[in-house]
Records
---
Amino acid sequence: MCSLRTVLLELCISKKFQAKADDILIATYPKAGTTWMIEIMDSIRQGGITKEITTIPSHELSFCFGVSSGVDLLKDMPSPRLVKTHLPFQLVPQSFWDKGCKVIYVARNAKDILVSYFFFHKITPILPHAGTWDDFFESFLSGNVVWGSWFDHVTGWWDVREKHQILYVFYEDILQDPMREVERVARFLGHTLDNGTIQEIVKHTSFNMMKDNPMTNFSRMPTCIVDVRISPFMRKGQVGDWKNHFTVAQNQRFEEEYRRRMAKTSLRFRTEL
Ligand code: A3P
């Protein structure tokens, strides 16, 4: 049996993948709070903070060593399987939709993603070199980064949220009212949890707890994959950190591009709380 808690489903392997009806997919643009939501979802389906939650890393090492693909690992994983992906909606294997799987999409405002993604490049040697902050800022706005355009990603998933079993969750909402959002995720996944258990999950998945928890803070990752000695994976965990990095001119440029790219969508983000 596979002792992994999640498996990353990526493009190169996703074509072979066959979903099961009780698979649960967590989909995000990178740095939107994937690790956070995995910890929340896994705690919910375990009915609280179990030994498995506290002793098995939330992130899998499958793609690091090239030993086995995510698809092979998923075959051995007990159901219900928790699968994570950064794929845009159009590239998710069709069998997920054919089987009616539940999907949780976590979205985070682009300004904070941009900053978080920049720092993530510094600690992740397998990603392309980010260049300077100014370089990365432009690359992100043009969608010329790994996983492509944030604009296309968030709006693509938003547009189909009512056609499938998709719960669209905002990072900013979880930070503002974690009790409400954990309860909402639990309800969507078909779990009824008492208040005490929800409180326990909220405490266990708070930023400060996850920052110090080796099962969630990536300190167990080989440094050739993620090197948290350079900068922590659990970096700030805030809404509005972009203000410490954007210049006035960059903010103006960002706002113009944002207005242009988001003109036709009803999707709204908060960049401060
Ligand atoms: P920052 O770099 O802004 O701190 P992902 O898991 O998708 O890669 O997202 C990582 C981002 O989510 C990081 O953002 C990280 O600090 C933040 N994060 C992770 N767990 C969190 C938590 N419990 N509360 C708030 N933010 C969290």
Note: The pocket of adenosine-3'-5'-diphosphate is lined by residues 28, 30-36, 112, 116, 119, 175, 205-207, 210, 234-237, 241 (CB under 6 Å).
---
Amino acid sequence: MLEIKNLHVQLEEEGKQILKGVTLTVPAGEVHAIMGPNGSGKSTTSYVLSGREGYEVTDGTATLDGRDLLEMEPEERAAAGLFLAFQYPVEIPGVGNMTFLRTAVNAQRKARGEEELSSGDFLKLVREKAKALDIDAEMLKRPVNVGFSGGEKKRNEILQMAMLEPRMCILDETDSGLDVDAMRLVAEGVNALRSPERSFLVITHYQRLLDHIVPDVVHIMHDGRIVKSGGPELALEVERNGYGDILAEAADA
Ligand code: ADP
Ligand code: MG
Ligand code: MG
């Protein structure tokens, strides 16, 4: 499980405080959503968990299955079972999708002290995963994300996720800019990968994704803190009334 306690983070350069005590536990098998107004620190939370440079943790902890994430290099975090899907998947011209997936899988295995997959075993695995997600084999031959539609990029990201079999998947506004069909694809992919051992943290600005990926818990973030947590109905409340009442209530408390 992912356990974040009292996480305080500031920008390294400007010293500006962005996260002001985030506390959040995502137990194994659960799907939690983080919603909140723009600029509340949702992306910063995912960046810090992934080990992106430029952020300084000034207080608090983040562990995955009891292991200190903040002490690990980004590739060690991946080996420990963390997967992050970002808003804008990168295009990598000249690198075939298969090569990319194989490199990612083998880097993860190496970091875990496991042997690399043989070509044959890798091919078998990627075909099996692609088939389960209804992904066309043609997509595997193209350069990573180059010329992919928004929906194809998302599918590809779900395939990466399926290949790496993460313990903890974080999706940061992976739905923004997607049409309804592409969003449904993301949701179907995530739902197909839900399991008792795997957890998800779904960061989204819009409620509509949560119609398809029904979360166990919804957290509202504002100004660097989780100000309210509840069930799926909390997302519906935001959809109906916006954040105003929730933030006013939090400010009173
Ligand atoms: P959210 O994802 O909830 O919209 P962010 O985590 O992206 O929020 O941003 C939180 C706050 O931190 C915002 O005020 C944003 O402007 C600021 N911020 C985040 N990263 C940087 C950065 N690298 N440089 C300057 N400001 C930043
Ligand atoms: Mg934002
Ligand atoms: Mg963001």
Note: Residues 11, 18, 36, 38-44, 54 surround adenosine-5'-diphosphate (ligand 1) (CB under 6 Å).
